[in-house]
């Protein structure tokens, strides 16, 4: 009985992780098509500011990480500092 539970839990966790990654990818590709998020490798700091102006702080942090190749914590601190200046 316990083995079945762990197997089901592992399968559920795998689907959950795959599903959330799929949803983020779909949202990001939709934003790129609409012009709300820069194309891969084309991001600049003006894009981070534009995302902040549009109240998309999480996407601004993601964009900052793409530009500077830094950790999530570093990007969050930097974007928070940028948002307080605006």
Fold and architecture overview:
The chain is mainly α and 86 residues long. It is built from four helices and no strands. Helix content is 79%, strand content 0%. Helix 2 runs antiparallel to helix 3 and helix 3 crosses helix 4.
Secondary-structure blueprint of this entry?
Blueprint (H helix, E strand, L loop, with lengths): L1 H33 L10 H9 L3 H12 L3 H14 L1
Helix pairs in contact: 2-3, 3-4
Descriptive terms for the model:
about 90 residues, mainly alpha
Summarize the structure.
This protein is mostly helical. Helices cover 79% and strands 0% of the residues. Helix 2 packs antiparallel against helix 3.
H and E string? HHHH
Which regions have little confidence, pLDDT < 50, spanning 5+ residues? none
Category from helices, strands and their pairing: mainly alpha
Number of strands: 0
Mean pLDDT: 94
Query: Roughly how many Å is the radius of gyration?
Result: 17 Å
Number of helices: 4
């Amino acid at each position: 009985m316990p083995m079945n539970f762990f197997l089901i839990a592992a399968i559920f966790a795998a689907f959950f992780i795959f599903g959330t990654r799929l949803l983020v990818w779909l949202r990001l590709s939709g934003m790129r098509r609409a012009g709300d998020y820069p194309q891969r490798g084309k991001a600049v700091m003006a894009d981070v500011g534009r995302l902040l102006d549009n109240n998309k702080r999480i996407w601004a942090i993601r964009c900052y990480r793409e530009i500077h190749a830094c950790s999530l914590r570093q990007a969050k601190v930097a974007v928070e500092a940028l948002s307080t200046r605006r």
